[in-house]
Amino acid sequence: VPYHIGELANELLPLAEAVIVKGNQNAVTDGAVATMNARTAVHSAFLNVKINLGSIKDGAFVADLNQKMAAIEEAIDAKEQSLLQKVNL
Questions:
Q1: Contact of 26 with 87, CB cutoff 8 Å
Q2: CA distance 50 to 69
Q3: What pLDDT does residue 60 have?
Q4: CA of 78: how far to CAs of 13, 55, 62, 66, 73, in Å?
Q5: Which are the contacts of 84, defined by CB distance < 8 A and separation ≥ 6?
Q6: Alpha carbon of residue 53 to chain centroid
Q7: Would you state the pLDDT for residue 76?
Q8: φ, ψ for residue 80, nearest 5 deg
Q9: In this structure, which topology does domain 2-85 adopt according to CATH?
């Protein structure tokens, strides 16, 4: 379940981007906060996954999940930075 939550939180970034880029100028900070919250939600959910992976004996499963999480985390970190740079106050 935490992995799925992380995936879902990752899907929020396009919505936040729409607010930042196309939304009302008074809502740009709402888009920025949504971006930061989505990134934090992904990392938080994946921390829960990582702690539980320590008890799983299937090495291939653990490696696969760690690789998927690392890719999502790297992408969302970069996207967060990109979106926050578009916030002009």
A1: no
A2: 9
A3: 97
A4: 11, 30, 24, 18, 9
A5: 32, 35, 36
A6: 19
A7: 97
A8: -60, -50
A9: Four Helix Bundle (Hemerythrin (Met), subunit A) (1.20.120)
Q: pLDDT tens digits for 17-38?
A: 999 999 999 999 999 999 999 9
Query: Is residue 48 exposed (0-12), middle (13-18) or buried (19+ Cβ within 10 Å)?
Result: middle
Cβ atoms within 10 Å of 85's Cβ, excluding its own: 9
CA distance 46 to 8: 12
DSSP states of 43-80 as a string?
HHHHHHHHHHHTT---HHHHHHHHHHHHHHHHHHHHHH
pTM of the model: 0.91
DSSP type of residue 40: H
Burial of 62 (0-12, 13-18, 19+ CB in 10 A): middle
